[in-house]
Every structure is written in C-alpha cells, then in structure tokens.
Write a structure and sequence with these properties.
alpha+beta, 6-stranded antiparallel sheet, about 50% helix, about 15% strand, elongated
Length: about 475
C-alpha cells in the first residue's frame, strides 16, 4: 500500500498544480494595463511587478499554460497507472480512469481554477507575480519553441506571440461590458466605430463634389468674404479656368480678413488667387484612419479628394472622420426646426423637407413638380446650384429664400416663403423662365456683387461640413 499512497499523493499534487496555474493563467489574461496602473496608483503591494507583466503578458500566460498542461497530463497518467495496477480485476480500467480524470479536471481546473483567477484577478496576480517572473525567465523558451513549431506546421501566417484575442473577441468583451452596465450604449457604439474606422475609405466620409462650395481665382476678396460669411465655411477651394478639376489652392477666411483689415482697398482690388495656400491631395481609396493620422501630423484640416481618373471627387476634413466615431457634431445653432412657423404676416419659415403639397395647402395653391417633392429640392432645382443662405427663387407666385443652414455640409434646413407682391415684384406680366431646366414660373434673384458657387464644401468656422438631409 505504500507505493499506492505515494502515487495518490503525486496525483493530488499534479492536480493542484494544474488548478493553480489555471488560476494564474486566467488572472494575468484578465489583468489589463489600466487595471495594473490603478493598482500602482493605489500603492498596492507588488503592484509594480504586476504592471510590468501586464505590459507584455504573453510570456507569463504561455508559461502558466505550459505548466498547467504538465499538471493535467501528469494527473491523467497517474490515475491511469493507479487503476491499471491497483485494481487488476477491474473491467476496462483505462476507460474508468479516463472518465474520472475528465470529471475531476473539469471541476477542479476548468471550473474551479479559472473561476478563482477571474473572480480574484488582483489577489492572484499580486500573490503570484514574483513566482511567475522567475518561472517565465527560466521556462519561457520551452513554450515559445512549441508555439513556433505549432505555427510552422499550421496553415497561415501563425501567431508568433501565441494565441491572443481577436477583434471579434474584443467586440464581445465590449458587448459584455455594456450588458453588465460598466459602459453605456453610446460608449459601446463609439468603440465599435473605432474598429470600423480602419475599414472605412475616404470616399465614404468625404463631402462629395456635388456639395462643394468653391471660388474662382479671379473673384475679389470682398466677394470671397461675402461667400464665406453667407456659407459659413472658413476654408474654401479656389479653382482655375477648368473649375473643380483645376483647384489651385485653398483660401482661408482668416487670411482674407487680415488682408482686408490691413488694407481696406484690397477687398476690391485684390483677387483671392493671391492668398491661396497649398492643396493637400488624397485618393478616395485611402483608409480614413491613415488620413486622420496624416492630417494630425501635418496640422491640416482639409484635404481635396481625387478619384481614380485624377478628377476632384470631393473634400474631407478632420471633423468628417471624427464624426464616424462620435456621430454628428452639432453646435448651438443646429436645432430641429418646426415644419412651419409664421414669422410675420404672410411670411412663413418652413422646413426644407416640407412637401410641395403641404406648402401649397399653406398658401391655397396646387403645387407639384415631376422631379422633386420638397421645398429644399425645388429651391436647388430652380437655382440650378446648391443653395446657401440668402439665395432667392421666385416660383409659382411664391418667393422662396434660403434661410438657415446646419451640419458640416451647411445644407439649408429652413426656407422663408411668402407670396410675390402683386405690384413692384418686377415679374408681373413677364413670361416665365423655362431656360436651363428651371421649373415652371421660376426665376433666380442674385446679388450682383456676390460670387455664385456651384457646389458646397469647405470648412466652416468650426470645420463643419455635413448635415443630415
């Protein structure tokens, strides 16, 4: 009976060893850098050693896993040996030994050890950090060699540092954190957006060509200043004779204001072409996170996006990229407007989304258009360009004036509407303008000294570019 007792003791020791290192493996797998740093701030014992291991947990975790496997396999061998030699008359001793080993290992190691490591992460880590640093220094080369051999015979590139959490597993952890009320739903969405940013291309976040506001290089500083104030953009592309495909630079509102302040006569005698800054170009297929890093490093806020043929596809700002993470950024002026508000007798401020039918009911008219359905749509169609605040259109006896804009793209969100005065309107008895695809009875009212951009872009006073439709 003496040898059998020794064998039983050895089996128990190996089982305890497997459970111990299972707890250590789980504890250091769960110990994050932030958690370890918090221990240092709280001046917990051995916190510095835990922080050093948490900075690179792979060697420690691999060593603990290696020693755990030694304990598990040794325990199984001892149990099989005991049943084979201690109970010679037992039917199928190997099967019985195997079943007992599976049950004991599952209860003690898989459930017990890992649960203790997860629940007592801080205690286990601080209690075993010194021991694991010694064992890792002595034994780490053995599991490391095994990992390299395993990666060599496994299809694919392998994992030189051993098996670690993938992006999908990290997403699951974030979801679990939300489910346990450790983070809010908005925080979870923000973290997911950070993961998705690496797969997002610039063309998906840019302000498209059709929404770009630009200036011709021959425009005066007064005209440029007027456009900047009316559109809300503080960085505007300046084009050559060939339009948006011939951008020669970017003009900044602060440069214009400084020049006009220093020399008041320059506002009418100097063109914007003399104040342009160099353009930063970006292909539309570039990952958004790479562009964000470049813009941060180069201290730029706006880049012009080009397509595969070299033409201008749009513009993109730092805010466009950041809003992919944090969502739409609004200021105190971006407020949801009521669909219809009477601001004066016979003058209404209506939402640009208001349907033409509802607008007609407001004035007792039958309004319809075969191409567009909303007030904002008819305003853009009638002007044949993206409207900016102050742009006016006369259509079907109504005067529509672009009112307020919002969002990064500064799209018009409200429109002032009133009936055209019966006298002094300047269009009584005149034929309706049907040219250039204008709607029936539509004509444009322009300010002679103002530049007329064809599209929206640029950067606002707070680098804003887009708005929700």
């Amino acid at each position: 009976m003496g040898p059998m007792i020794i064998q039983i003791v050895v089996a128990v020791v190996l089982l305890a060893m497997a459970g111990f290192f299972a707890a250590v493996q789980e504890a250091f797998s769960a110990m994050t850098k932030g958690r370890a740093h918090k221990l240092v701030e709280d001046e917990k014992p051995k916190a510095e050693q835990v922080e050093q291991i948490a900075a690179d947990p792979a060697p420690t975790v691999s060593t603990a896993l290696f020693l755990r496997l030694i304990g598990e396999i040794g325990f199984v061998v001892m149990v099989v040996y005991l049943f084979d030699h201690g109970f010679p008359g037992l039917v199928w001793p190997f099967v019985v030994a195997g079943l007992i080993s599976v049950f004991v290992l599952f209860v003690v190691v898989i459930v017990g050890g890992r649960t203790i490591g997860r629940q007592k992460t801080t205690g286990v880590a601080t209690a075993t950090c010194a021991l694991m640093r010694v064992l890792t220094a002595v034994l780490f080369f053995i599991p490391q060699i095994m990992i390299l051999v395993g990666n060599a015979i496994t299809p694919g590139r392998g994992h030189p540092d051993g098996p670690f959490a993938s992006e999908d597993e990290l997403r699951e952890y974030v979801g679990m954190a939300e489910a346990s009320n450790q983070i809010e739903a908005d925080e979870r969405k923000m973290i997911y957006s950070v993961f998705d940013l690496g797969d997002t291309l610039v063309r998906e976040v840019m302000v498209p060509r059709t929404h770009v506001v630009y200036l011709e290089e021959t425009k005066t500083l007064r005209q440029a200043l007027s456009l900047a104030l009316r559109s809300g953009f503080s960085r505007i592309p300046v084009t050559g004779p060939r339009g948006l495909d011939d951008i020669i630079g970017i003009v900044y509102l602060k440069d214009i204001a400084k020049r006009v302040y220093d020399n008041a006569d320059s506002q009418s005698s100097q063109s914007v072409g003399s104040l342009v800054r160099p353009v930063t170009w970006c292909p539309d297929s570039k990952p958004a996170d790479d562009l964000l890093h470049e813009m941060q490093a180069q201290h730029i806020h706006l880049a012009v996006v080009v397509d595969e043929f070299g033409g201008t596809a749009g513009v993109v700002t730092i805010e466009d990229i950041l809003e992919e993470i944090v969502g739409e950024i609004q200021d105190e002026f971006d407020q949801e407007a009521d669909p219809v508000t009477e601001v004066a007798h016979g003058v209404y401020r209506v939402s640009s989304r208001l349907s033409l039918a509802d607008l007609g009911d407001l004035f007792g008219l039958e309004l319809d258009d075969e191409d567009v359905d909303s007030v904002g749509g008819i305003l853009a169609k009638g002007l044949n360009q993206v409207p900016i605040p102050g742009a006016t259109l006369t259509w079907e006896g109504l005067e529509l004036t672009a009112d307020q804009s919002a969002g990064r793209r500064h799209q018009i969100v409200t429109v002032l509407v009133r009936r055209v005065p019966s006298a002094g309107s300047g269009d009584e008895g005149e034929p309706h303008n049907r040219a250039a695809g204008l709607p029936k009875s539509a004509e444009k009212t322009e300010e002679p000294a103002e530049p007329q951009p064809e599209h929206h872009n640029g950067d606002s006073h707070k680098n804003r570019h887009r708005t929700e439709a």
